Amino acid sequence: MTRDQHSISRRNISNNALRVLYRLRDAGFQAYLVGGAVRDMLLGVVPKDFDVATDARPEQVRQLFRNCRLIGRRFRLAHIHYGQEIIEVATFRGSGEGDEDEGDGDREIANGRLLRDNVYGSLEEDIFRRDFTANALYYNIADFSIRDEVGGIEDIKARRLRLIGDPEKRFREDPVRMLRAMRFAAKLDFTLDPAMARRIPQLAYLLGEVPPARLFDETGKLLLSGCAQRSFDLLREHGLMPALMPQVADSLAGADGAKAEQFIRAALASSDARVREDKTLTPGFLFAVLLWAPANAIHERLVESGTEANLAWQRATDAVMATFCRRVAVPRRFSLVTQEIWTLQHWMTRRNRRRVTRLLTHPRFRAAWDFLALRAQVEPELASLVEWWQAAQNLEGDALHAHVESDIATPVAGEQEAPRKRRRRRGGRRRRGGGAGGSSAPDGGND
Question: Concatenated DSSP letters for 359-417?
Fold first, then answer.
């Protein structure tokens, strides 16, 4: 498509991306804007990222840009840094078939899965190595034309997501493509090509062979892109939920599945609204939502078996997160947020002056209160507790003290306030107001 046949303008392309494209062109290399940026601009959407494809090798790209870093083992890429913006530059991929590719990189395939793909080739080969037709569009900075060899423009007009090549072979090469299909379909409001959609439930088990760190990256994109609710529905519709998050799938299929689904959908809708409003959102909060039902179920079983409530929460949160992280490798900085939100749900049902003061200054209090408010949408008995804490957030000093004293809470949802045990003193009399303790519990861990 020549410049007069499409709507893409350089005014809509990042200045830094243009700088990379022009420098590659001036150095005698081919330079194309490729992938999602081209697709989004054709859809009238402002792109968030700009990727470049070129015939320059990664080492040649690094020689042209002092602000370049080479990354990746599976795919060797050049990242060119401009402050907070990163322009990703990829060398044209070869087919890996035939003698012309020998000595020009390396490729490793095991059981049909592509483990490493650093075989370089031509533009024509690179086009057919892309995953979806809508992502295989190349904007040429030399003449401002768009190259489309796979019907991507037609699919964009039809709002259809279609794989390039045989779906089974492409999914076996990289099972994460199934999750990418869900994300793009949700984000772009595209329908899945029937030939591709039929194969996804049959091949969902392949996600078990994907490194957990990659699954975390893709799961984060599903949850944080502003289309989490639709992504959730598509994962369930196409049979990917049991393979990606077995604990969530089990809770949705259980006796309280309808209640769990209502809670998750309410939380995801709220999260999508926050993304649209450019508000902060942490993966730890969303994992707390998705895994709340299994964590709460384990806690209840432990309490029924005689385990003290605080200890039961600790064991339940540890067990749920340990199991989940074996499939999706959630970094500790996020899993700790998840566990703290769960633990604070327990502490927020028990209100006295010292505990309330400590909870209000806890770094996860606001997230825990938001979580409690979402729970109240499916557990009406929590509404008064939500209102109490909402009022407490706006009080301090004597006013807060009066608020606590005027309404000493009774336990919520069947919880009983455990009697405080008198400590036996050791080593003689201790001065009041001594050490700072060390427990992470809001009241020092004693209940």
Answer: HHTSTTHHHHHHHHHHHHTT-GGGHHHHHHHHHHTT--HHHHHHHHHHTPPPPSTT--P
Taking the model in full, what pTM does it have?
Answer: 0.82
Catalytic: which of 40, 55, 131, 272?
131
Contact 143, 30 (CB under 8 A): no
Average pLDDT over residues 409-424: 46
Res. 72 pLDDT band, cuts 50 70 90: confident
Helices 257-276 & 283-290, crossing angle to 10 degrees?
160
- The CB density around residue 242, as the number of other CB atoms within 10 Å, is 19
User: Catalytic annotation on 126?
Assistant: no
51 is catalytic: yes
Q: pLDDT tens digit string along 108-143? A: 555 555 545 568 889 999 999 899 999 999 999 999
Q: How far apart are CA 358 and CA 350, in angstroms?
A: 12
Distance of alpha carbon 87 from alpha carbon 50, whole angstroms? 6
Cα 61 from chain centre: 30
Q: Which of 348, 341, 317, 369 is nearest to 412 (CA)?
A: 348
Tokens of 259: 């209640």
Task: Count CB atoms within 10 A of the CB of residue 154.
Answer: 13
Matching residue, tokens 């707390």: 288
Residues 6+ apart with CB under 8 A from 331: 216
pLDDT for the residue numbered 379:
92
Catalytic residue flag (residue 131): yes
Question: How many Å apart are CA 260 and CA 122, to the nearest integer?
Answer: 50
Query: Mutual orientation of helices 212-224 and 176-188 as an angle, nearest 10°?
Result: 10
285, 371 Cβ separation under 8 angstroms: yes
CB 291 within 8 A of CB 330: no
- Please tell me the distance from the alpha carbon of residue 93 to that of residue 120, in angstroms, as a whole number: 4
Q: Are 13 and 50 in contact (CB under 8 A)?
A: yes
